[in-house]
Write a structure and sequence with these properties.
The complex is a heterodimer of chains A (about 190) and B (about 200). Chain A is an all-alpha fold and about 190 residues long. Helices cover about 70% and strands about 0% of the residues of chain A. Chain A has two domains: about 100 residues, no CATH class; about 70 residues, no CATH class. In chain B, about 50% of the residues are buried. The chains are: A mainly alpha (about 190), B mainly alpha (about 200).
Chain lengths: ~190, ~200
């Protein structure tokens, strides 16, 4: 009788293993980097421009401000740069379409590797709500910093890095400097 | 010279948006493959236990840099037609510093947060909302900081001109630097393997 129960439970354990898709390990970083570099090169060759991310978020913000208060948006030089002369929708923009692609590409890659999962990413020593608060805070700084620097890790570090743009290299060095200098204060969140 | 294709008028703006979407898919796919959809792996870069950020980024920079260089040498790609942002030393240095601190607090950069959100991470969603808020704040205070934002402008300037070295030599030096950084990264990952989030499970 006990052996039968054991067998049944074993059967279920096997079932659980089948149901629970184990996430596949990430790809080799060097090969991934070469692939990413070829995508960037392709963008240079086809479009004459590199990749980006924060620019699309700026278009979205400018669009939001324009929708709520058109006068306020057009009186501000920063928003005006994304709105243009007002004849075209700010969302009909190269980077906006590129970032929509990033959303799809990220989802496809994650789905193929069994990595789609509703989650909050954090270290073991911090609560979920604190982590979400830090995510918002870090995001705000990133948004502000990226605008000040005229681009983020994609538009400046990656794209400008490959083009040997002086400003991009200054930016990249400062990003690493800021991250390493502040890492100590954030250790409870990640370690 | 045949490239960049868009600048030679081979296709119109509508088609360029379709291309943007396709290039974006490849970009997002590469980022997720490389582990950039995980905040813990991204942040581990700053604790020296997982150096994927450095490895992927510098392999990508070196690959694209060599491609641009050689396609220029054989006369296929006109480098002058590739869009480059002008250099503004102080705003870019300060922006980089704020962004770096934001990186270790938030766990993402704008591109990787999109990928992480696409795979179901709620903290990435919060991060994106934060980034939109930060950009909004920047927009609202822009009139006050416009002077600083436009200060120390050097125009479009590349490392070869800034360092008074030939283009080929700078390309070579970046490759050497990257290989050195890879060696250090491998060493650090071994030393701090005990706190590498990728080694869990």
């Amino acid at each position: 009788m006990t052996s039968l129960a054991k067998k049944i439970s074993e059967l279920f354990t096997k079932d659980i293993e089948v149901v629970e898709v184990k996430p596949k390990p990430y790809s080799n970083p060097y090969l991934t980097g070469i692939g990413l570099g070829l995508v960037l090169l392709l963008s240079f060759v086809i479009m004459g421009r590199g990749l980006g991310a924060s620019g699309a978020m700026s278009s979205l913000v400018a669009f939001g401000v324009q929708t709520i208060s058109p006068e306020h948006a057009t009186s501000n030089e920063f928003y005006k740069e994304y709105i243009g002369d007002g004849t075209t929708n700010p969302l009909k923009d190269w980077l906006v379409f590129e970032v929509l692609g990033v959303l799809v590409g990220g989802f496809v890659s994650g789905a193929l590797a069994g990595r789609i999962k509703k989650r909050v990413e954090k270290g073991p020593n911090i609560s979920k709500s604190k982590r979400l608060l830090f995510a918002f805070l870090g995001g705000s700084m990133m948004g502000f910093g990226a605008k000040l620097a005229r681009g983020c890790t994609s538009g400046q570090a990656l794209t400008g890095g490959a083009l040997l743009n002086l400003g991009s290299w200054i930016f990249m060095i400062m990003v690493f400097a800021g991250g390493y200098a502040f890492a100590y204060f954030m250790r409870r969140q990640w370690l | 010279m045949n490239a960049p294709f868009f600048k030679f008028g081979y296709f119109n703006t509508e088609i360029s948006l379709v291309i943007a979407f396709i290039i974006g898919i490849a970009f997002g796919f590469s980022l997720e493959r490389g582990g950039f959809g995980s905040a813990r792996i991204l942040a581990a870069q700053f604790y020296l236990s997982n150096m994927r950020v450095l490895k992927v980024m510098f392999s990508a920079i070196v690959t694209a840099m060599l491609g641009v260089y050689y396609l220029g040498v054989i006369g296929f790609l006109d480098l002058k037609l590739i869009y480059m942002t002008e250099t503004y030393v102080l705003p870019q240095a300060l922006g980089g510093l704020i962004l770096g601190i934001g990186f270790v607090i938030g766990g993402y950069c704008p591109g990787t947060s999109v990928v992480s959100f696409a795979t179901g991470s709620l903290d990435a969603l919060m991060y994106i909302l934060g980034a939109l808020f930060g950009i909004f704040v920047f927009g609202e205070v822009y009139p006050l900081i416009a002077n600083f934002y436009n200060s120390t402008n050097m125009g479009v300037v590349r490392l070869p001109e800034a360092l008074h070295l030939s283009y080929g030599l700078v390309v070579f030096l970046v490759v050497v630097m990257a290989v050195g950084a890879f060696a250090l990264a491998e060493w650090a990952e071994k030393k701090f393997a005990f706190r590498n989030p990728e080694n869990e499970k």
